[in-house]
Input
Amino acid sequence: MEEYWSRLEKAQGYSEVWEIVKDTVKNSLDERRVGMMLFLDDLPLRVGAYHPLGTNNIVLNRALVNIVEVAAKVKLLVNSFVYVLLLHEYLHALGRKSEAQVRPLVHRISRESFGENHTATKLAEAGPWSLLKDIPLDLIDVPKRVMEIVKDFEKATKRYIV
Ligand SMILES: [Zn+2]
Output
C-alpha cells in the first residue's frame, strides 16, 4: 500500500499514473490488459474521459485536467484525479460495461491500494467532480484544441516485451 502511495505522489505524467492503474487492478482483480492508447481532447466539462467500445483507446478530457491542475496545485491531487478517471475507463476496457459495476469497483480498488483516507479513495467515493465543487464549470469556456495522442503511454510495458 505504501508503495502505491508514494508512486502516485511522485508520478510524472500520464504514463506513470497509468502504470499504477494497471498494477493496482492486477493486484485487486488479477486482470490486466496491455496495448491501450491515450488521447487528450477538450470535451464538455461534465465528461471526464471515455473508452470507445471495441477500441484500445481512452480519451481523457484535457480541458478538465487543465482546470484541475490550476485549482488543485498539489501534484498528488492532480495525479489522484487522473488515476480515478483512468481507472474508471480501464475497467470499462476490461469488460465492465455498466456504471453500476464500475463505480463501486473504482472505490474498492482505490481503497485496497491506498487506504481509506487517501485522496484517490475519497475522490473515488465522492466522484472526481467533488474536487471542483466550488468552481462554476458551466461558466467556463472550454478551449477547443486538436486531439493529441500521448506518446509512449505504455513505454514501460514495451520495455519488457523486447
Ligand atoms: Zn463509465
Notes: Confidence is low (pLDDT under 50) at residues 158-162. The CA atoms of residues 41 and 126 lie 24 Å apart. The pocket of zinc ion is lined by residues 88, 92, 99, 102 (CB under 6 Å). The chain has seven helices and four strands.
